[in-house]
Structure formats: structure tokens, C-alpha cells
Amino acid sequence: MTPSDDAFSKGFDLDLTKRILGYVRPYLRLAVTGVLLALFTAALQPLPAFLQGYAIDQALTPFLSGANTDSAALLRLLTLIVLGYITVQIVEFGLTYLSTLTIGYLGQNVLRDIRANVFTKLQRLHLAYFDQNPVGRLITRVTSDVDAINQFITGGLISMITSTFLILVYMTVMLTINWKLALIAFTVLPVLFVVTNFFRSKMRLTFRENRLQQAIVNTKLNENITGMQTVQLFGRQRRSALDFDHSNRALLTANSNSVKWFSLFMPAVAILGQLSIALVLYFGARLILGEGAGGTGAGAALTVGTLYAFVQWTTQLFQPIQDLADVFNNLQAAMASSERIFGVLDTREEITDKPGAQPLGHFRGQVDFDNVWFAYDSQVQADTPDTDDRWILRGLDLHIQPGESVALVGATGAGKTSVTALVSRFYDVQRGAVRVDGTDVRDLPQYDLRRHIGVVLQDVFLFAGTIEGNLTLNNPEIPHERVVEACKYVGVHEYILGLEQGYQTEVRERGATLSTGQKQLLAFARALIQNPDILLVLDEATANVDTETELRIQEALTRVMQGRTSIIIAHRLSTIEHCDRIVVMRKGRIVEQGSHQELLAKGGYYARLNRLQYAQGDAAD
Ligand SMILES: Nc1ncnc2c1ncn2[C@@H]1O[C@H](COP(=O)(O)OP(=O)(O)OP(=O)(O)O)[C@@H](O)[C@H]1O
């Protein structure tokens, strides 16, 4: 966890609050209704205890003291009070239900809006952003950080209003009925507020530590489960178990601290509650008995019923006081979360469409790299010296004619994949230009550019869904016939038909049940269905594919390339022998280019690589 993940270090911030409230504005009516309902509910709270006290004073005490012995009349009065009591409870039930529903609904709607905003923002962000921000962290933004904002609204702002109101209602009622006893009942409240605040902030700190340790345990679990094959292959079980045990123990300690504070908190609150009741009982009884001045109790300053009601009100006052102590913590925790969410929302979109960018319409498929200098490092600018190590492409000049197939070859890290990423404008170049059909890719709408480019990635990404959904990318406009045609063309149709539900078979676990070769063929079919003008193929090092599948892939590739500008990165030279041109790259520069035969004749890097691979092939045979 980075310092920016610290959910508890941020103080209250008015600007952030205003921004969060901006999300509530569309639901203002809902918010006002929710708060009003909650206030009505609050106003009813002291009534049940009042009615109970009233029953004691008006129906029971007169009978017991002999002041009124008409038991039938007293029973009628008691029935009326009980009916009133039940009515109050029913109304309170209805109001609580409606206010909880309204406020919950408000919170959930705000959450949905923020989640949607973050999601659409993420979709617009440049790939470099994802290089720098791990997936886990981004998911936290959309899930727990967004939840913290809900807490801010419901547990923070709304709770602040309703709890304060409730406290005021109780206090007013108590002061009006007997101000002396009310003041006695209030003496413990400030202590309760301070104690609750202290414990809650302690618990928040331990909770934060829990979350941190839990995240570490999760990461370890994730790594070990996904890398189980490597763990078992290298006999790393014991070491991994020790490592896991270390984190597991740290989590235990963190959880034990939470439990420690929590188990202190509950009895502390309970003892304060009992203390205030004891005070109310003692001083209330003194008031009833005539304030220790030898009074007889008759005509005393307090009735038994009122004392009974006071005991209840004192206990009930505890809840809003505790809630109020929590409000501050809730607000503070949500501040850091909202700051991080707005951090994502405010990230500058580096790859944007120019205002008025016009689509090309028809693509011929010409691709030109004009003296391209490129680095992933955003610190590298156009004026950075040529000698800087951070440059990935160094003055690349590459011109590909419509329909031409070009293969990029070179040692790992030479910059081949970067070339293909630039054609799709996943990154912007620092110097020079990448052009498609003579137009700088920065002048084209991204959607239009990428619509014409088909990419077959090294690691074929399959979404959860059916095989057909994966092939069409859930575009309902693509007819089934086109899907079948493409699959037949690349030779994967028979295989799909052999599956239990054919094209409607669900792909599970990102296609873990499919072989590498099958996934490759599906990727070709997917690219073909989109009918791109330019094709970028980044081949898997097909070492673990059997010869027959390799031949199939090879055949599919040749077919898919037909009539399209194609840029291929292949680690197996046999895959690219038939390409129109082979471009050999080294450290971001082109070192040689020509056809397979020409390059062999030249006897340079390519010829050496070729000899090496054939020698390996022979040895393997
Ligand atoms: N997303 C990225 N962020 C930062 N640096 C990157 C990124 N992708 C690649 N690089 C760096 O750029 C250099 C060129 O990488 P590139 O993937 O283009 O090489 P390549 O020739 O395709 O290599 P390979 O054959 O191994 O796929 C490498 O040094 C790599 O570390």
C-alpha cells in the first residue's frame, strides 16, 4: 500500500465536500425527503417513554396510593395509553422504513453515478496510465473508495443532521419536563462523546492496519495460486508456506489489536451508561423524596413516571451521541477516498481526439513512420538528447505500402511491439510522426483509426461470455453467418462445433480450458470478423504448439493477411519467410530490411538468426 492509499490521513476538506455534494444534487428531492423523514422519526423517539411514564403516573400510582380506586376508569385510561403507544410504534416503524429506504436509495444512486464516471474515465485514459497503476489499485478505486463516499453521505452528513436533531429533541424534552434532572443526566454525555471518539479512532487505525495486512495476504495468495505450477515445479512449497505464514501472523496481530480495542469499547460505553442511569436514579429519587429535606414524597418535585421516562431517555441519548462521535471519523475516512477517486477523474487524458478531427472514411492501408522518436517515459521530451538511454525508438523510418506484409524481427526489447502500439496510437510519439494513408494518427479520431486496425495480440484476451460473444465482441450487428465464415476461413469452425454448445459455449476462466493454438485461431477469426484494413499480429512464441497446430496457425495467418497491410512480429522465422519485407530492428533502429532471400544473401543479423533457429530445429528433430 502506498502513502496515497492511506485512508485516514486526510483532514476535512470543504472543496472535496462540495464536489461530493455535486453528486447528490441530481437527487436533491430524494435527499430532502430522506432527511425530513429521518427528522420526523427522530421527533417521535421520546414519545414511547413519555407514554409509559404517563401510564405509571396517571393510571398506576393513583390506584396504588389510594388516590383513585375506580379501577374500571383507570383501566380504560390505560387502554387508551396503550393504543396510543402502539400507534406511535407503527408510525415510527413506517417512518424509519421510508427514511432508511430513501437514504439508502440515494446513497446507492450516487455510488452508481460515481462508479460509472470512474469506469468511463478509465476507458478514456491512455495505456501508459495502466502501465503505472496496478489493476488492484484501480479496482479499489471503483469499489471500496466509492463505498467510502456512500459512508460520507449516509454515515457522515445525513447522520450528522439527524443525530444532532435527535440529541436536541431529547434535550429539549428532558429540560422542559425537569431541567434539574436533565442536567444531571447530561453530565456523563461529554465523557461518552470523548470516549467514543477516542475508541473509534483507535479502532480505525487498527482497521487500517488490518486492511493493509489483509491486502498483503491476498497478494501472496493470488501469486501462489496463479503461480502454483512454478511453485510445485521448483519445490518451493516450504519456502512459500513460510513466507505466507509470516504475512498470516502479521494479519493475526493486526486483527488481535482490533479485537483488543473493541472488547474494551463495549464495556466502557456500558459502564458509562450505567453510571448515568445511577445518577439519574439517585438524584431523581431524591427529588421524589423531597430533596433530602425531610419531604414526604407527596407533592414532590418529580413523579415516579417521569423518573422512569428519564431513565429511558438517558439510555436512548447514548446512541445519537455515539453516532455523532463517529460522524467525524466517517467524514475523515471518506475524504481520503474521495480525493483518490477525484484523482482518477482528474487525470489528464493524454491521448485525446483533436477538436474537429475528421474520420478517414475509406482506408487504403498505407503506414508511414517518419523519423519517429519515442519513449514510454513521460519525462522524455522532443528536445531530450538523442543519446538518452530512455529513447525506445530512435529516428525510425518505415514506409509500408497498402496491402504489403512486413515482418519485424529483432532481439527482445528492440522496440517491435512499440512500433505496433504506435500504429494504433496507444501512445504519442515525441518526435516525428506516424501516418496512416498520409494522415498523422494524432489528427484522426481514435475510434476511426482503431476501427480499421485489427490486432492479434500475443496473449489472446477472452472475456467471460460465449465463444460467439468473444468473436463479435458482443456487437449484435455482426450476423452469425459472418462469424461462421471467418471461423471456417481460419480453420477453427470444426473445433467450435465439437464443443458441447458450439458457438454458444461459455468461455470460462478467461479461456483457461482452451489451448494456446485454439486461442490463437479464435483471435484470427475475431480480427477477420472486424474486417480491418491494417492488421497487426503479435505472435505467441509458438514453441509449445504441436506441428499440426503450428501449420494451421501459419495457414490461417497467410489467409488473414491476404489483401491487407500487415505488420507481424514473429519469433519463429518460419512464420514470416513469405512476408513481402522483413525489417530487422536493433535498439530502436532499423538495421537491415529486405525479403527473406535478400536478407539471407546479405549474410547479416537475419541470416545469423535464421541459421541459429534452423540449427535448433534440426537438433530438436
Ligand atoms: N508499457 C511500457 N512501459 C514502459 N516501458 C516499456 C513498455 N513496453 C515496453 N517497454 C520497454 O520498451 C523497450 C522495447 O519494448 P518492446 O516491447 O517494444 O520490444 P520488443 O522488440 O517487442 O521485445 P519482445 O520481442 O521481447 O516482445 C523494452 O526495453 C521495454 O522494457
Can you walk through the features of this model?
The chain is α/β, with parallel strands linked by helices and 621 residues long. Helices cover 62% and strands 10% of the residues. The strands form three sheets. The chain has a six-stranded mixed β-sheet with strand order 6-9-10-3-11-12, sandwiched between helices. The protein has a four-stranded antiparallel β-sheet with strand order 2-1-4-5, covered by helices on one side. Helix 4 (71-124) runs antiparallel to helix 6 and helix 17 (516-529) packs parallel to helix 18 (547-561). The protein starts with 13 loop residues before the first helix and ends with a helix. It binds adenosine-5'-triphosphate (ATP). Adenosine-5'-triphosphate is lined by residues 131, 376, 392, 410, 412-418. InterPro entries: AAA+_ATPase (IPR003593), ABC1_TM_dom (IPR011527), ABC1_TM_sf (IPR036640), ABC_transporter-like_ATP-bd (IPR003439), P-loop_NTPase (IPR027417), Type_1_exporter (IPR039421). It is a multi-pass membrane protein. This is ABC transporter ATP-binding protein. Residues 367-612 form the ABC transporter domain.
What keyword list fits this structure?
alpha/beta; 621 residues; 6-stranded mixed beta sheet; ATP binding; disordered N terminus; binds adenosine-5'-triphosphate; single chain; ABC transporter ATP-binding protein; transmembrane; 4-stranded antiparallel beta sheet; ABC1_TM_dom; Rossmann fold; 21 helices; ABC transporter transmembrane region fold; elongated
